[in-house]
Amino acid sequence: MEMIAERGLDRLTMAALGREVGMSSGHLVYYFKTKDELLLQTLQWSEEQLGAQRRAALARRIPARERLEALVELYLPDGHRDPHWALWLEVWNRSQSGDDEVRARQLELELSWHRDLVALLVEGMAKGEFATVDADRFATRTRALLDGFGTHLVVGLPGVDRPLALSHVRDHFDESLTPGKG
């Protein structure tokens, strides 16, 4: 994951990766067949790690808003060249090629975040912690907001940092989810 983030998939060689992990490039090709498959499996592994953290954060017995903010903290990159997000950038770039299998696998990974966000919104509304919104639509918009800020953070655009992005997201939640507001 770190080598893909550091070099990008196009500049990564199986030989260099093999040296890094103590395997021959032939073994890597045997297990992964292509660099695209290596990328997808690395992304799936990364998302499994984040998914476990996300499920733990969502299972905590704290108000829904605090869990929502914990989910956002996990979603957004830590900053420029965040390895988890570098994988996503590579996959998004490669999904333009038209490979339906790649897009289906990518969609399933993205939908795990979406489903958890929708479930949390529904729970928060049911408990009166959140204003009533269309949970699916709100989750779609929120993920688009997070993806936009996340992309800016991971590529290192000047003027955008993690605290600023988190502040904008909190404002979005305050304006949209505060009961009796709007």
From TrEMBL:
Pfam family, one: TetR_N
Classification lineage: Bacteria, Bacillati, Actinomycetota, Actinomycetes, Kitasatosporales
DNA-binding region, residues: 13-32
Claim: Transcription is one of the keywords in the record: yes
Xref: InterPro entries: BetI_C, Homeodomain-like_sf, HTH-type_TetR-like_transc_reg, HTH_TetR, Tet_transcr_reg_TetR-rel_C_sf
Name the record gives this protein: TetR family transcriptional regulator
Signal sequence, renumbered to the chain: none
Taxonomy, superkingdom: Bacteria
SUPFAM superfamilies (UniProt xref): Homeodomain-like, Tetracyclin repressor-like, C-terminal domain
Keywords: DNA-binding, Repressor, Transcription, Transcription regulation
Residue ranges occupied by any HTH tetR-type domain in the UniProt entry: 1-50
